[in-house]
Amino acid sequence: MDLPLYTYQPLDLATNTIRILRIFKGHGKDPIHGELIESLLGEDEGLQYEALSYTWGESGNKPFTIELGDKRKHVTENLYEALHQLRRADKDRWLWVDSICIDQENSDEKPHQVSHLRHIYDQADRVLVWLGSSTDDTDLLMDLMVELDTRARKNIKYRKDESTAWLEEWVALSSSNEGGQMQNELNNRRRDALGEIFARAWFRRVWILQEVFCAKRASVICGRKTVPTETFVMMPRLMSINPGIHVQSVLDIMLGCLRRHSWRSQEPDLQTLLRRFRASEATDPRDKIYALLGISSDILANGALRPDYSVPLKQVIQDAIRFSNFPPTGNSTAFADKPRSVHAMRMILDYDGVNVNITDSFGDTPLNIAARTGNSFMANALLKRHEIDVNHIGCEMQTPLEEAELNRHTEVAAQLRQRRDVVARDVSDIAFEGTQSPTHATTPDLPVEVPEPPLRAPKPWEYYPGPQSKHETMLLLNRGHLFHAPLVTEEPLSVLDVGTGEAIWAIDFAEWFPLAEVTVASYCRPVTEQQQVPRNCKLEVLSVPWAQIYMEHDNKFDFIHVQDFRGDIDDLKRLYTKAYRCLKPGGWIEHANLSFKIGYDDGAAPRDCIYATWNRLLQSWVENGPRDHALMDREQYINQIRAAGFREMPHVNECKVPLGPWGPSRQWRRIGLLNQASWEASAGLAMYYSDYYDSSRINHKELRRLFATVRKSLGDPTYYPHRT
């Protein structure tokens, strides 16, 4: 006689009540017997329990049953096997299992319990990661991990430095296992087993992210074998296996030493989590967002975006977009300079809570940005909001009208002048116009519609001059953008960074695009003390000419970034030609560089002005040296790029970069101070010229004396020196 189906008793949703599954002790193939007991989450009198992390499998296919009291409950095959393996022979076991402890058919209870998942897993005695049944090869691998874990925990260094203890014991263990064809075959089987485990569905399930993210203690279970996660997450590194970006991101959030040193320790926000785990899977598409809410730092800070399964998928996505780009304050600056983001911006503006006057890290409102970039569609959408501040003075000490007129955006200026509350000021004293947009070009098959790059705010570096100050200077010049090239793909997969020295640009890029593989061909050792290198960023300490070995394969890169190589390449045209060949169709190369040549605003400056003397000698040295492109102007760069085969040439501009605090705004003065500090600290630059140019034509003492005079003169504002 079949038992009746189990029916749930409603929970008190006004409290933190949850259900705990008590599995009665049993043996072997005995049926699973248990009961559900209510408990208060987080209370002293609450039950102690372990939480199961597993994959449901086919949710509609539940051919197995367990007995809850005198009734039966249908479960999937994977869960049934997990419960059999986890059941103890000598005593009962208390588990929290989502598909059993939550009434999945109750539309009120389900979102209530989902909103408590973080606390359920956080307060569990242990999180049990069930990876499924075992094979002979996975048993070999698990036995190896158990032995390694036992040895590492006995190592005297374990308490202070777990990773060192594991590495030492791994080396010792590997040495003892060396030799013989049979041992090599065993090692290969273990490596294959680890790859097979990483390919299992558990690593793709979106809900497991929150489950392991919050765990205080956790174990990985495969068949009858169990190993702590602290050892499991170390295995790819110890066995020299690349698990892939998605799996590595999962390992980074699991309990272990990787968690403390990875991006997980930075309290990731919703946007970061959505990017990193975009490959995760869920039966209900809404769960690809809801599953991340409990571990998102910005969601936790304000309690926004609660799971609600009565809301349609489209609305859930729109709410997530709105929140991730415009958090509760309603930040609407991010899309203001993106001509193709009008639809998204209009959707955002439909929400009354959006603050259209919010300022970005530079002090600009969305209207300032739209006016400066000539985005008439965005300006029109913003001007329809009655509370818009049309006279806000932005980072360049200009109102939106002044921004539009100084940058010759007549359509936006006309829109602004139609407003009666616009105030027109005299802006004739503004000395600097425009912002830098580095040279970039595309291969022939570029589609018309391409997404814009993300806006990136500069970081408040404490130390300068040095690599950080150079990076901040370029960010300020580029108005917070890491790059300007309109990449064809939303997520570039293969990127090459050439000549940016300390790799700070590439590190930032790799953090923004976690799915991209960023190769850095740097001419000096990267600085990593201030910022950890992401796993998708590969650093190579090479001279720039040697960096071209990465350009030997056709159609390899989506984007090549070249910056600040200071004439290190003998043949610039050859570099561009190689870049053209190794870029994928529609790929981009972007080249940004600051000239050695010093300009000055006073056209009537005497011929014996120190800057004029410097430029004449520099021109002479460069023209007679192997790197005559070091002082090329804009048109010469364009000709070189076109000769290499590139077709599109948009956004090629020059700007004056002040060598001192001569600019009309805080932003330009900051750029000037950073540029001056970098130049003044470059005492070895004189020797640089000696190394790279014809030494027979250069008097080293004269060069050092001249360079010292130039550096000393930078504090004199008479001629307003600048670079381009």
Description of the molecule:
InterPro entries: Ankyrin_rpt, Ankyrin_rpt-contain_sf, HET, HetReg/Transcr_Mod, SAM-dependent_MTases_sf. Pfam families: Ank_2 (PF12796), HET (PF06985), Methyltransf_23 (PF13489). Residues 49-211 form the Heterokaryon incompatibility domain. Strands 5-4-2-1-6-3-7-8-9 form a nine-stranded mixed sheet. Strands 10-15-14-11-12-13 form a six-stranded mixed sheet, with helices on both faces. The chain folds into four domains: 17-109, no CATH class; 136-266, no CATH class; 326-417, Ankyrin repeat-containing domain (Serine Threonine Protein Phosphatase 5, Tetratricopeptide repeat), CATH 1.25.40.20; 439-723, Rossmann fold. Residues 329-344, 427-466, 523-531, 542-549, 626-630 and 691-696 have low confidence and may be disordered. Strand 4 (64-68) and strand 5 (71-75) form a beta hairpin. The protein is globular, with a radius of gyration of 31 Å. The chain is α/β, with parallel strands linked by helices and 724 residues long.
